């Protein structure tokens, strides 16, 4: 309303490759706060070794379950490990793992979805059936089955979740790709004699990326929550990791003893990042024009 | 109508077959000897135990036969034997199932009452109430339920001491008292979905011409909302409630662990952490069956609520 | 004050003329008095008798409706009245504001719209009603019959539930059996076969014509004094349409209700109604006794509407669609809104603020060049309105007349007749429109 505010979020704009959509009334306050918070979290994760007051695994039994104070800003856990340091270090796995998960799921899902849309016929039917079967299954149970078979661990968790997410992404990609396929430029490349794989890889998929990225952004919060849940159940990150989900599990025993900080500090971190990401994600998805 | 029912039933059975086969065959996907895997790993493994496993699972026969026998046994209530608890798995399940079902039922009541209620308020009041409901429930949905569980325990269990922090209680009020915090943390995430579906469905219903016609005829607003808007919006709401309830069977895995409830969900977590695969298999089978059956039931209920859908489907 | 249509700035230029229109109408019937309350009497007699002395059921004076964001008002300077037992037609293209006008009787306006002017139903100032009083007004005094009965009924509730709800609104007291009995009576009254079974059926099990009967039964349940029929027959096939028209007429005769009949079909309105008002872009452009409108339309738009219906006698060449498109809310008009599509438009028309110009006898038209079309029309229009030929024509046989008796007839006859009789301007205009 008060004119274009293009410089309001240059970082986000270039990162997400938002083209030509200058917000008319500036960014909503919630989006600004969310984006700011996320930027801080990413910065803290990158700089964790520099800014954390203690090593994440420094055990100090004398300071067991200390409250907030000068020595330990956010208190300590049962083994006297500094919670602030652990949360800062934990941000790395807690943020990178969902990113990896989504990348893997996107690779699988986009490939399957594009294949289904491009080839049609039995490939399409197969992919559709596969996604239907996955939809008939609660996702968490599928992941738990894989973990039951292959054993707990971060790698298994990420792979299992990637497999669970892939059908959703495939279904979405298929719907977007079907529409994109009918556009004239595809025919033009075909007339030039370009192979199907080449058109898909170099022209079709890049044109889908906007919509797909928008979709992935919205999935990120969910991916982070799912991974944290697995770690909390003991299926994901294993000690001595400072993964937030695992920290909550480790700190849970102290809650009943009246020391909620060891569980609440990482728990709040998870919740805050998910909330911020959902606010920014929904906004970004709208900007990227992804249909849901 | 009957043909549709049969088709649906056939689909349900097919899904269950596929799911049970995946759950059964997962044993073969595990690295190493399936017998060792089923027995729970190499430590403390005796040749007798291994032989018992081979015998129980008919591991010497072809895969299809094994699956057939396993399924046959499962259908007859013989879910195998836990090599950790040295107990019949079926007995373990029956002793733990009531807690899980109570928890899911309690959480369902909570999210239906508050979720649908909030959705109605958002749709009818609009304005700030709408924003508050959407904002509040989105926030609630962004908190993983194990974090919510711990927050609730810290505040209402430890700090205020209103609710017990562990155990399932006895008697109706005791159970209610013990299960309140777990049910709340289980229901919290569902509030956003349900309230949003309710809100949207009601707004769609309220935009119909017949609502305008009824309003023009001087039908009081309260009656209008109840008889013409909510009643017509019920289809999607009930469907979504059913789906969420079905999904909660899986959600108990987390909440039961967080509150130390000995239900089916925590049984699954323990089974996996102690490599007790037969138990994990049985719980997964039970949960998937429950999920598939509930979602299909919901699909059957929908046309009963909406004669339009019924007419469409019987015409098709 | 309620009697004049002239107390507005727009029409202020000719206050006397504006006031003459309704009073002229009132004087004529006064000459042959009929009992005011005789609802069972012939409809014409009832209409005339009531209009002679009784206050009008619906009296809209200078109604305007502004919508924020729209380039022009939804309604401007709309005045109309419906007397007990009278059928008044409201005709126009979609978007002309006819439904909006009718809904004003229920104080139903689009969100954010600001009404000005006056709307009285049976003496009550509707625009001043709020809350419970407004709800009671909508529930009991006025009933509306909508275009698509399928959309007007809640698809998931039974027909019986619908009627029960309406009966409850009317304050019908009694146990379930009594309510049920009354519902069956109502369905029988609107001519639905096997009414008891209908109560248990849902809308999707009934045909459109049956549903419209149900809707009318629902309207009758509250015993309204005024019935608004908003394109009530447009969505029905021809034979059903005739049946519903007949039913509405019966209802009006037996209950003495006033009927505001909204349609886009000018031929139908002229055949069915006592008086017809034509709307364009939220304004009244012509208001005439039905017969006069039909035989001697005065506003170029009315004429255009008549000429764009195909007739039996004239070949396809005789059909002249009105050029251009109906105006949207985004179009603003400094002058007469019909200028762009009018065959006889002159540059001054674009600046001429439309106002009702009274016609001799009864009625008005809002056209700047009306005076130029005047000399001949004055006599024929006055004669038509004065004679009671209309009475017979628009009587109980009106429906059959619309269907069987060639309603094309008058058009075919009147079109050339008018051209012959009228001096230069008219024939020139018509040719201009054709060419």
UniProtKB/TrEMBL annotation, chain A:
<feature type="transmembrane region" description="Helical">
    <location>
        <begin position="212"/>
        <end position="235"/>
    </location>
</feature>
<feature type="transmembrane region" description="Helical">
    <location>
        <begin position="33"/>
        <end position="52"/>
    </location>
</feature>
<keyword id="KW-0472">Membrane</keyword>
<dbReference type="InterPro" id="IPR035906">
    <property type="entry name" value="MetI-like_sf"/>
</dbReference>
<keyword id="KW-1133">Transmembrane helix</keyword>
<dbReference type="InterPro" id="IPR050366">
    <property type="entry name" value="BP-dependent_transpt_permease"/>
</dbReference>
<keyword id="KW-1003">Cell membrane</keyword>
<dbReference type="GO" id="GO:0005886">
    <property type="term" value="C:plasma membrane"/>
</dbReference>
<dbReference type="Pfam" id="PF12911">
    <property type="entry name" value="OppC_N"/>
</dbReference>
<dbReference type="Pfam" id="PF00528">
    <property type="entry name" value="BPD_transp_1"/>
</dbReference>
<keyword id="KW-0813">Transport</keyword>
<dbReference type="InterPro" id="IPR000515">
    <property type="entry name" value="MetI-like"/>
</dbReference>
<protein>
    <submittedName>
        <fullName>ABC transporter permease</fullName>
    </submittedName>
</protein>
<feature type="transmembrane region" description="Helical">
    <location>
        <begin position="95"/>
        <end position="118"/>
    </location>
</feature>
<feature type="transmembrane region" description="Helical">
    <location>
        <begin position="138"/>
        <end position="165"/>
    </location>
</feature>
Automatic annotation (TrEMBL), chain B:
<dbReference type="Pfam" id="PF19300">
    <property type="entry name" value="BPD_transp_1_N"/>
</dbReference>
<feature type="transmembrane region" description="Helical">
    <location>
        <begin position="103"/>
        <end position="124"/>
    </location>
</feature>
<dbReference type="InterPro" id="IPR035906">
    <property type="entry name" value="MetI-like_sf"/>
</dbReference>
<feature type="domain" description="ABC transmembrane type-1">
    <location>
        <begin position="97"/>
        <end position="298"/>
    </location>
</feature>
<keyword id="KW-0732">Signal</keyword>
<comment type="similarity">
    <text>Belongs to the binding-protein-dependent transport system permease family.</text>
</comment>
<dbReference type="InterPro" id="IPR045621">
    <property type="entry name" value="BPD_transp_1_N"/>
</dbReference>
<dbReference type="GO" id="GO:0055085">
    <property type="term" value="P:transmembrane transport"/>
</dbReference>
<keyword id="KW-0472">Membrane</keyword>
<feature type="transmembrane region" description="Helical">
    <location>
        <begin position="233"/>
        <end position="259"/>
    </location>
</feature>
<feature type="transmembrane region" description="Helical">
    <location>
        <begin position="136"/>
        <end position="156"/>
    </location>
</feature>
<dbReference type="Pfam" id="PF00528">
    <property type="entry name" value="BPD_transp_1"/>
</dbReference>
<keyword id="KW-0812">Transmembrane</keyword>
<feature type="transmembrane region" description="Helical">
    <location>
        <begin position="176"/>
        <end position="194"/>
    </location>
</feature>
<keyword id="KW-1133">Transmembrane helix</keyword>
From TrEMBL, chain C:
<dbReference type="InterPro" id="IPR027417">
    <property type="entry name" value="P-loop_NTPase"/>
</dbReference>
<dbReference type="GO" id="GO:0016887">
    <property type="term" value="F:ATP hydrolysis activity"/>
</dbReference>
<dbReference type="GO" id="GO:0005524">
    <property type="term" value="F:ATP binding"/>
</dbReference>
<comment type="similarity">
    <text>Belongs to the ABC transporter superfamily.</text>
</comment>
<feature type="compositionally biased region" description="Low complexity">
    <location>
        <begin position="9"/>
        <end position="50"/>
    </location>
</feature>
<dbReference type="GO" id="GO:0015833">
    <property type="term" value="P:peptide transport"/>
</dbReference>
<dbReference type="Pfam" id="PF08352">
    <property type="entry name" value="oligo_HPY"/>
</dbReference>
<dbReference type="Pfam" id="PF00005">
    <property type="entry name" value="ABC_tran"/>
</dbReference>
<keyword id="KW-0813">Transport</keyword>
<feature type="region of interest" description="Disordered">
    <location>
        <begin position="375"/>
        <end position="435"/>
    </location>
</feature>
<feature type="compositionally biased region" description="Low complexity">
    <location>
        <begin position="404"/>
        <end position="416"/>
    </location>
</feature>
<keyword id="KW-0067">ATP-binding</keyword>
<feature type="domain" description="ABC transporter">
    <location>
        <begin position="58"/>
        <end position="306"/>
    </location>
</feature>
<feature type="region of interest" description="Disordered">
    <location>
        <begin position="1"/>
        <end position="50"/>
    </location>
</feature>
<dbReference type="InterPro" id="IPR003593">
    <property type="entry name" value="AAA+_ATPase"/>
</dbReference>
